[in-house]
């Protein structure tokens, strides 16, 4: 009985560490996707890239379709600021905060 209980506790700890590491990895990927969208929007705004090119349009539409469900709820809460969109910045800061929480608490499961 004691061995089974110890094994179960180790399994749960390893499972939680794995889940937190996967979540951390997904947040890192999301961070880089947001950075790519920000850079692409600047390149389009300064007419370095043409949105009418099929490849650029596919990438731009794909990034917007992926990130818009994340940005939309924040845009309702953030004040209107004209042409500057603070939703990507707010999501980026939230991701950084979540990564700090994960990094500080993952050691509790070792």
Key structural traits:
110 residues; mainly alpha; 3 helices; 0% strand; elongated
Notes on the structure:
The chain is an all-alpha fold and 110 residues long. The protein is 79% helix and 0% strand. It has helices spanning 2-45, 54-77, 87-105. The longest helix is centred in the first third of the chain and has 44 residues, at 2-45. It is elongated and about 65 Å long.
Task: Provide a short characterization of the protein structure.
With 110 residues, the chain is an all-alpha fold. It has helices at 2-45, 54-77, 87-105. Helix 1 packs across helix 2 (54-77) and helix 2 (54-77) packs across helix 3.
List the helices and strands and how they pair.
Elements: H1 2-45, H2 54-77, H3 87-105
Largest sheet: none
Count the E strands.
Answer: 0
Order of helices and strands: HHH
Oligomer status: single chain
Question: Structural class given helices, strands, pairing?
Answer: mainly alpha
Rg estimate, integer Å: 20 Å
Q: Which regions have little confidence, pLDDT < 50, spanning 5+ residues?
A: none
* Helix fraction by DSSP (H/I, runs of at least 4): over 70%
Silhouette: elongated
Strand percentage lies at under 5%
Q: Mean pLDDT across all residues, rounded?
A: 92
**Total helical segments:** 3
Report how far apart the termini are.
22 Å
């Amino acid at each position: 009985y004691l061995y089974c209980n110890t094994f179960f506790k180790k399994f749960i700890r390893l499972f939680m560490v794995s889940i937190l590491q996967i979540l951390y990895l997904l947040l890192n990927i999301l961070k880089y996707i947001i950075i790519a969208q920000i850079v692409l929007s600047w390149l389009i705004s300064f007419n370095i890239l043409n949105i009418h090119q099929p490849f650029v349009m596919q990438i731009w539409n794909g990034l917007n379709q992926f990130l818009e469900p994340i940005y939309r709820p924040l845009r309702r809460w953030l004040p209107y600021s004209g042409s500057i969109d603070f939703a990507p910045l707010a999501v980026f800061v939230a991701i950084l905060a979540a990564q700090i929480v994960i990094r500080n608490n993952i050691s509790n499961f070792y």
